[in-house]
Design a protein that fits this description.
By secondary structure, the protein is mainly α. It has a single domain, classed as Jann2411-like domain (Jann2411-like fold). It contains 8 helices and 7 strands; from the N terminus they run βααββααααββαββα. The strands form 3 sheets. Strands 1-5-4 form a 3-stranded antiparallel beta sheet.
Length: about 210
Amino acid sequence: MTDIAAELDRDNALPSGKLCLEFANTADWHAAPQPEEHLTGYADLVGWARQIDLLTADEAEALLAQAATHPALAAEFHAWAIELREALYRIFAAVAHGATPVPADVTLLNEALPQAFNGPALVANNGGFTWRYHTGAGLDRMLWPVLRSAAMLLASSDLDRVGQCADDRGCGYLFFDSSRNRSRRWCDMGSCGNRAKARRHQTRHRAALPA
């Protein structure tokens, strides 16, 4: 079983600020005409989940062995995972710009949610109780926390903190703006932020040159 409180803590430690956004960002330059895909096969999906501690080393090894035994099923699940990721990306990109998500994308998410919230149980914890969910053993187990993260963010009062990198070249990185004054604009100041700063400097410099 997985502890929902632990899932929320993990969200805060991720660069994007939310697990569902982290998954949506698994293609670089996502808003460009030709994004750079990082999840080219099922093994890449397991590797990503292992990297951010969604899976232990033993769990990742077991899933890869299961995928090797059932390659067609693993390929089918990988294709579904990419379809889900693209739907999540479009949903949160729309939210970031104050637009209404495409109904078909929300439908795809809703169809997957029952499995993600499978077998909830209240478990005593430090004098209180916490929600836990069954992790399961299927090839899709690493996406259940992603789906829960998406559902909770979409239904939260902090949804307006979802933003997208302001780079105009197609970066498209999604993030949860946890700054006090909600001033985050870039995926990272060391990349897109610096490029934008340099372009502004060059523009000002050219404007200052004598005609």
